[in-house]
Amino acid sequence: MSRRADPLVVDQVMLVPTAGPMGPIGPAGPPGEPGPVSGGPVQWHGQGAPPEYIEGAKPGDTWLDVLTGTIYELEADADGRMIR
Question: 28: buried, middle or exposed (CB in 10 Å: 19+, 13-18, 0-12)?
């Protein structure tokens, strides 16, 4: 069955297609590719001082204490883990 997007004229009567009922929803597709990773500093936030370890943080990232407005710059320890 084909669908026409344009009106059809028959015997000087214009027939305009209308959408029918919605069909069933198909299966989910595969997950997409991961988005780009930011190369710049990231600002983490939370209440109080930053935790001792923040997974995914890197040197130069910052932590904003939302209660006081204090900003901490994160550094790496000897094992490469991020510390405050």
Answer: exposed
Q: What is the pLDDT of residues 40-54, one digit of tens each?
A: 888 999 999 998 888
Distance CA 57, CA 83 (A): 9
b/e map 43-55, b = 16+ CB within 10 Å: ebeeeeebeeebe
Place of tokens 């029918």: 20
Q: Is 75 helix (H, G, I), strand (E, B) or coil?
A: strand
Tokens (6 digits) for 38: 């930011």
pLDDT at 4 over 70: no
* Residue 19: alpha-carbon gap to chain centroid: 32
Q: What is the pTM of this model?
A: 0.49
Q: Give the contacts of 13 (CB within 8 A, at least 6 positions apart).
A: none
Residue 63 neighbours by CB distance under 10 Å: 23
